[in-house]
Design a protein that fits this description.
Distance between the termini: 55 Å
Strand order of the largest sheet: 12-15-14-13-16-17
CATH class of the largest domain: Alpha Beta
Radius of gyration: 22 Å
Shape: globular
CATH superfamily of the largest domain: HUPs
Largest sheet: 6 strands, antiparallel, barrel
Strand content: 25-35%
Number of strands: 17
Number of helices: 7
Structural class: alpha/beta
CATH architecture of the largest domain: 3-Layer(aba) Sandwich
Number of domains: 3
């Protein structure tokens, strides 16, 4: 049996606290550990949104403290071709894609994995909060034990090869413990804010960012009665369930309740908005395309649980297959089902896979 000390693991060291602690834990477990910092977005950092230089500096400080080698690589062209172009095309079609899901499949667990294997690694590791188990020669993706940080939703497109070559050291612990370990070991990343926003691109005004790449196409914002409220600059810049950024003030509607996006009517270039917890925000069924199953295609119909967005409480549902499309019927209506997003399926704590939401029905 191969000993841990003979296994070489390259950790994706991002300059954040999670990957820092992941590297430490692997060293403590006896692996031969090196690290790799990935740059995946080319942009002048004068606007303060892209923090690649600071992240690289922090990653180097952690690597130095751990006494491990830090490799660097630029995957910007891969990210543009395999993730960002798709991201833009989906928005043009009025859908709301999840770049983090595709980024994991195409960059972190493909480009990075291939690069690490060429460096002589046996496995790669990241700071994701998820678990991998092996049963009967099949690898299963399981939820992380920290319910508030579980990231299996973003990893549901991984395949058997990718899982067989990956380690998630943080799957068994929670975020508070991770920060405590980082502080105890004097990591510069111990109190560093978690990264949010678009994968590798950072936090920014989303609508303004998209308008850099997509043309504006003015249309009407209307209420459920067809009453004109104001103009929008393009359906691509909104998402179902959105509240912030609508800038619909007083004088519209019959109450002071906030407004939410309920639908994007592509044929008419109309944005439908409703006030409060309106029934138009809820649907009980959806169709999803491009299904991916981590182990094997299940037997349909299947009772399971599903999430239509990250950090949503899992919802009971029944799924079936109809000519290659997945039909999902939830036990209870779901709020703001969003075409383009992923619906991810689970059997208790095991992630079965997922698909891309195409349409929703009442």
């Amino acid at each position: 049996m191969t000993s841990l000390t003979s296994l070489k693991v390259i950790v994706g060291l991002s300059g954040g606290v999670d990957s820092s602690v992941a590297a430490l834990l692997l060293i403590e477990q006896g692996f031969e550990v090196e690290a790799l910092f990935m740059k995946n977005w080319e942009e002048d950092d004068t606007d303060g949104h892209c923090t690649a230089q600071q992240d690289l500096s922090d990653a180097q400080k952690v690597a130095n403290k751990l006494g491990i080698k830090l490799h660097t690589v630029n995957f910007s062209s891969d990210y543009w071709d395999d993730v960002f172009e798709h991201f833009l095309q989906e928005h043009k079609k009025g859908r709301t894609p999840n770049p983090d899901v595709l980024c994991n499949q195409k960059i972190k667990f493909k480009a990075f994995l291939d690069y690490a294997l060429n460096l002589g690694a046996d496995k790669i590791s990241t700071g994701h909060y998820a678990r991998i188990t092996q049963e009967n020669d099949l690898f299963q993706l399981k939820v992380g034990l920290d319910n508030n940080k579980d990231q299996s939703y973003f990893l549901h497109l991984l395949n058997q090869h990718q899982l067989s070559k990956s380690l998630f050291p943080l799957g068994e612990i929670n975020k508070d413990e991770v920060r405590k370990i980082a502080a105890e070991n004097g990591f510069v990343t111990a109190d560093k804010k978690d990264s949010t926003g678009i994968c590798f691109i950072g936090e920014r005004n989303f609508s303004e960012f998209l308008q850099t790449y997509l043309p504006t196409q003015q249309g009407d914002i209307v209420d459920e009665n067809g009453q004109f409220i104001k103009h929008h600059q393009g359906l691509a810049f909104y998402t179902i369930g959105q509240r912030k950024g609508l800038e619909i003030g007083g004088g519209f509607g019959t109450s002071g309740a906030p407004w939410f996006v309920a639908d994007k009517r592509l044929k008419n270039n109309e944005l439908l908005v409703v006030q409060g917890d309106n029934p138009l925000l809820y649907h009980q069924s959806l169709s999803a395309s491009n299904p991916h199953w981590i182990t094997a295609t299940p037997t349909f119909p299947l009772k399971c649980i599903a999430k239509i967005r990250y950090r949503q409480v899992s919802q009971d549902c029944t799924i079936s297959d109809q000519d290659g499309e997945i039909q999902v019927k939830f036990d209870q209506p779901q709020r703001a089902i969003t075409p383009g997003q992923s619906v991810v399926f689970y059997a208790q704590d095991v992630c079965l896979g997922g698909a891309i939401i195409k349409t929703r029905r009442t």
